[in-house]
Write a structure and sequence with these properties.
The complex is a heterodimer of chains A (250) and B (304). By secondary structure, chain A is α+β, with helices and mostly antiparallel strands. Chain A is built from six helices and 13 strands. Chain A has a six-stranded mixed β-sheet. In chain A, strands 1-3-11-10 form a four-stranded antiparallel β-sheet, with no helix packed on it. Chain A has a three-stranded antiparallel β-sheet with strand order 5-6-8, covered by helices on one side. In chain A, helix 5 crosses helix 6. Chain B has 304 residues and is mainly alpha-helical. Helices cover 73% and strands 6% of the residues of chain B. In chain B, strands 1-2 form a two-stranded antiparallel ribbon. In chain B, a hairpin with a 4-residue loop joins strand 1 and strand 2. The longest helix of chain B is centred in the middle third of the chain and has 33 residues. Classes of the chains: A alpha+beta (250), B mainly alpha (304). Strand 5 of chain A pairs antiparallel with strand 5 of chain B.
């Protein structure tokens, strides 16, 4: 009887003890330089009990990779008097430039809508911070439009089977970044979920930065607009002149 | 060949961009139009952000016009005096255009206005040119010469005060006419990301009544300076000039412009004008249809 109680207590206690996540990213720094055509990030890690042994239980893993946010204005075209014009718009204060969610199972099977909304698990739950009057149906229409647009540009994505968990310990997910990613600080958040509850989460960071010539050019254009413009003009004239000379010889 | 564009923030196939530059360069050399009306929409279609496309196309047009201006000045095809007046007007025009651009951008209607302008201008000019060149072609075929069309300027031009002699153009008219024309094209350059050549050339022929052999060269001369001003304006305000993109376009367009100028000397002028007119009408038609059809993207994002 005492043994049984002890066993029960053991299971109850270990069950309540939340596991820890040890996340890692294949690259902490993505270098954007000549020839950059996008890259693939491998996000992997282990699920362990606090004392460092394997958790030995089935967890669902959700990985969210989020790029730097920015304020945007989203315009919507409507047909007015036979032609399509920008008829309506809304502003979002914190639209991420990149957002990818990978999970071991479809999000709907892992958590309820409320939890998903709290942790931003999935594209429908993006917190875009709309500015101005809040009309839920209108905002929903606009966010859906934004998500659809950026999804087709490969900047927003959802992969309901993107995380592979092996032996109840190791997980891994692959997320592709297109060449059009913005530079800045990206966060990769990993969630371990059990019975619809987030039991552990961990963050790792990825820096996307331009290097060398690309970095110098971007900074030159930003800080010394006049000279940059002058350089562009001189290059155009120089090349035009050169071609004129070369062809005159032919 | 993948090339990463540091300002546009994406990688493109360099050869596609060079080819695009070559295509517009040939047009530029042949017709004296900048070719911006082709490059900008095609680059946007390829996935380059619209502002970057318009800003970088301007510097590509600069390069194409330099080599074009050289080619034409070798055969005395540039009226520098007329060109100077046009440029002065053009630079005032870009300033006005920049103001209009930001106003329309705030209203969120910039792309609709641009499309409407394209349809109206290209449609109108295309039809005039097509009719005129068609008549000439028919006359050439039948052997019956057209009643020699008296080269003269529009009555409204004659009513303007102050008169200058423009020797190479063979004109004695008020400088206000080319000044206003230059201003108008300057506004268009800033708004539409084009050189304005397809407006200038017919206007010089049919409104100012300039002699045909200096029209193309002088138009290129004006475009050269106005696009330089536009590039500077973009570099200072939108900061969207992508120098890598511009160089790729330039490689194609400067060589294309030379080939185009040589072709223009060999090919019959009337047929050439007819081809340009058809091209212009075709683009106008596709844009008119585009306004009425449901666009591919209902939503557009713009950073604040």
């Amino acid at each position: 009887m005492r043994v049984l109680l002890a066993l029960l207590a053991f299971f109850a206690l270990t069950g309540a003890r939340d596991p820890i996540l040890v996340p890692e990213v294949s690259q902490h720094e993505i270098q954007v330089r000549q020839g950059f055509t996008g890259t693939e990030l491998l996000l992997f890690g282990a699920i362990l009990t606090p004392d460092g042994t394997r958790a030995g239980q089935d967890y669902d893993i959700v990985v969210v990779l989020k790029g730097p946010t920015r304020s945007i204005i989203l315009r919507e075209k409507q047909r007015i008097a036979g032609i399509w014009v920008n008829a309506d718009n809304t502003e979002f204060r914190s639209a991420p430039t990149f957002f990818a969610v990978a999970s071991s199972r479809p999000i709907k099977q892992i958590v309820d809508d409320k939890t998903a909304a709290i942790y931003e698990l999935g594209l429908p739950w993006l917190q875009l911070s709309p500015i101005g009057a809040y009309d839920p149906t209108e905002q929903a229409r606009f966010s859906a439009g934004l998500v659809d647009l950026l999804q087709r540009e490969g900047l927003y994505k959802e992969d309901p089977r993107g995380v592979r968990v092996s032996e109840q310990v190791l997980y891994q997910a692959r997320i592709a970044l297109p060449s059009s990613v913005q530079t800045g600080s990206y966060t990769a958040e990993t969630f371990a979920i059990s019975k619809g509850r987030v039991v552990a989460s961990a963050i790792s960071r990825v820096e996307v930065k331009k290097l060398g010539f690309e970095r110098a050019t971007a900074q030159f254009a930003e800080n010394y607009g006049f000279f940059y413009g002058l350089l562009a003009v001189l290059i155009s004239i120089g090349m035009g002149f050169l071609a004129g000379r070369l062809f005159a010889l032919v | 060949m993948d090339v990463y564009l540091p300002i546009a923030n994406l990688s493109v196939n360099g050869l596609v961009i060079v080819a695009l530059g070559a295509l517009t360069g040939i047009l530029s050399g042949m017709f004296g139009v900048g070719g911006g009306f082709l490059t900008t929409p095609l680059m946007i279609f390829y996935g380059i952000p619209p502002t970057v496309a318009a800003a970088s196309a301007a510097s590509q047009v600069t390069g194409a016009s330099v080599s074009g201006v050289f080619a034409h000045s070798r055969r005395a095809g540039v009226d520098y005096q007329m060109g100077g007046v046009l440029v002065a007007g053009g630079i005032v025009g870009t300033l006005i255009g920049a103001g209009l651009f930001s106003l329309l951008q705030r209203l969120g209607q910039i792309d609709v206005v641009i499309n409407l302008l394209y349809v109206l201008l290209l449609g109108g000019i295309g039809s005039i040119m097509a009719r005129e060149s068609w008549q000439t072609l028919r006359a050439q075929k039948s052997g019956v010469a057209l009643p020699a069309r008296k080269r003269r300027h529009h009555p409204m031009v004659a009513s303007l005060p102050l008169r200058w002699r423009f020797y190479r153009s063979g004109l004695y008219i008020s400088p206000l006419a080319p000044l206003l024309l230059g201003m108008f094209t300057g506004v268009l350059t800033m708004l539409m990301g084009i050189g304005g050549g397809f407006v200038l050339v017919p206007a010089m022929l049919y409104i100012l009544g300039m002699s045909a052999n200096v029209v193309v060269g002088t138009s290129l001369f004006q475009i050269l300076f106005v696009t330089m001003a536009t590039t500077m304006m973009h570099a200072l305000t939108t900061k969207a000039v992508d120098i890598v993109l511009a160089v790729l376009l330039l490689i194609g367009s400067v060589s294309g412009a030379q080939i185009g100028a040589q072709l223009a000397e060999r090919l019959p002028a009337a047929r050439l004008r007819f081809v340009l007119a058809s091209l212009v009408l075709l683009i106008a038609l596709s844009m008119a249809l585009g306004l009425g059809w449901r666009p591919d993207e209902i939503y557009t994002v713009e950073a604040l």
